[in-house]
Specification:
Strand content: 25-35%
Shape: elongated
Number of helices: 2
Radius of gyration: 20 Å
Helix content: 10-25%
Number of strands: 5
Distance between the termini: 55 Å
Largest sheet: 5 strands, mixed
Strand order of the largest sheet: 3-4-2-1-5
Length: 116
Amino acid sequence: MAKQNNKNNNRDGVMYSTDSNFEFNHFQESEGETLAPQQQNLKIYLDRKGGGKLVSRITGFVGADADLANLASSLKKLCGGGGTAKDGEILIQGDFREKILTYLQKENYKAKKAGG
């Protein structure tokens, strides 16, 4: 099978434009400013993921992915477990809602437990 020659491989999702003044924007949107901890409105849920395992899910973070990753790293160290941070959410393996809530409030985040 021959390799396809794709001249426009840097133009994700653009097929054709009838606008003669169209210019493709190569720059991605910059991330928004990270709100101060007092302005964050975080909610802590308990979920079940694949196989029925419990995870603590923190939602509502507004800011840069790097700041989200730093907060997730701190929470993973606090809980002594694994987890991930993406799409404005932090997932921590296990039921650590109380521990996470205490830590976030100590760090001046506006946080509360949500869900059942």
